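> run fold Penicillin-binding protein
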Amino acid sequence: MNKPLRVMTRAIFVMFIALFFALTMIQFVTADELRASEFNNRTLKNSYKVERGSILVGGDPIAYSTPTGDEFRYMRQFTDGALYAPLTGYFSHSQGKTGLESAMNQDLAGIGNAQFFTRIMNTINGVAPQGSSIETTIDPAVQAAAYNAMVENGFEGAVVAIEPATGKILALVSTPSFDPNVLATNDVDKFYEAYRPLQEDPNRPLENRAIAGDLYHPGSVYKLLVAAAAIENGDATATTEFDNPAQLTLPQSTAIMQNASRTTCGPGAKVSLERAVALSCNIPIAELAMSMNRDAVPKMAHDFGFEQEIEIPLKVTPSISPVPADQAQVALSSIGQLDVRSTPLQMAMVSAGIANGGIVMKPQLVEQVITPDLRVEKEFPPEEFSRPISKKTADAVAGIMELGVTDPEGLAQNAGIPGVRVAGKTGTAENGVDADGNDLPFTLWFTGFAPVDNPKVAVAVVIANGGGAAFENQGGSFDLPTAVGKQVMEAVLSE
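> ok
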C-alpha cells in the first residue's frame, strides 16, 4: 500500500472513530441534557402534547395541568399558590420554569430515562402522553403553620423545618411570596405584564429566602458551631469557664466587643460556656474561639454543610464561613458576623444534626415519583450527609441549647412548650450602617428542635429588618422568630 493511501485510510479511520464517539455522546451520554435544553424546540413543541404530572403535598395536588383548548393544550394551575411557591416555582410553556417545576422537569414532563419504556408502550397503545407526579416531603399542616406565622405579622424572611432522623423537609416558607398562577399563562404579553411587577418589587417576592438570595449573617445562632467545635476538639466542655468582662478590645485593633446587654455575662468574674450560650453573650464565645485553631470553627461549619453544594433537589446557595485572617476576625466571626453568611436551610441542618446525635441527614424535598398509572417510579430514601460531631458532643450541645429555653434568663425561653423538652438558640445579627451612618435593622434568628429526648422536628427561622415597620424595625430575636419557631414545632408535635 502506497503512502498516500495509508494516510487517507488512517484519516478515514480516525474520522469514523470521532463520528462514533460523537453519536454515542449525543444518543446516550448527553441525551437527557439535550432533551431538557431550553433551546431544544422539538422538546418544547412535544411538551405541548403532554399532560404534565402533578406536584403533591400529603397526596393532594398543589400544581397540576388543565386543558386549554389552544395549541398549548394545557396550562399549569397552582393550589394555594403563595403558600407553596417556594417549592413549586412557576411554569410557563413559553417563558420557562423555576422551583420543582424546573428541578424535576424531566419526571413531570415524562421525558426521563425511567419513563422510556412507558413512552413506547403509550405510543403503541395510543395512550395520550402524561408526565409522572412528584410527592413532596412537605407536611401541609406544618407548612401552613409556618407560613401563617410569618404572613400574619408581615414578616420578611423564611422558615425551614426538618425531620432530624430522615432529613425530610416538613416546611419550606419564604415571605413575601407570590402567586405562580399569574405566571402560568401561555400568552407572552400577559406573562411579562405579571412578571415585571414581581421582578421590580423591592420586597423581592420571587426570591427564595429559605435556600438562596442574599444570605443572612447568622449572628448568635452561629455560636452553636463554636461550641460544637470546642467540645468535639477537646478545647472546652459545657462547664468550662471564661473571663467575664463587660468589654473586650480585639487583638491588634482598637475595636471593642461588647455583649448585647452592654454588661458582663451575668454576675461573677467567670462564666461557663453553657451559660454564655444560653444568655447569648459575645465576649466569652470570642475568647473561646480565639483560644482555638483559627480554622477550627470554619471546618466544623463546613462539616455541617457550609461552603458545600447542596441540592434538595432545588439548588441551594452555599452558606459562607471563610477562615478568618487574624484573631480580631476570629472573634467577630465566632458571633456570626463579618463574612459569615447562611441560609435558613443550613441553620436547620445544624440543629437537625445536633438533634440526631451528630449525624446530619441530607435534606430532601421529594419523597417519590409516581407514574400516571400510580406505580412508584423512583424513591428518595434517607441519605446521610455528614457526621461532624460525636453523639457525646451532640448531647452536650443539645443540653446547652435546652438550658437556653429552661434558664429563667435564657434568651430562648419563649420557645418553651409545656410538657415538652425543647432546645433552642436565638440570634441577632448586625447589618452595618446606611449612607447616613444610621444602624441598619437587625436580622433576627431562632433555631432549635423538639423534643430533646426524641427529636421530631428541627427548625430555623429568620426575620429581616427587625421584624419590619409593625415592630418599628426593632423587634427582638427572643420573641419574634422564637414565637414562629414554637408554632412550627407545636404543629409537628400535635400530629
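The CA atoms of residues 40 and 167 lie 35 Å apart.
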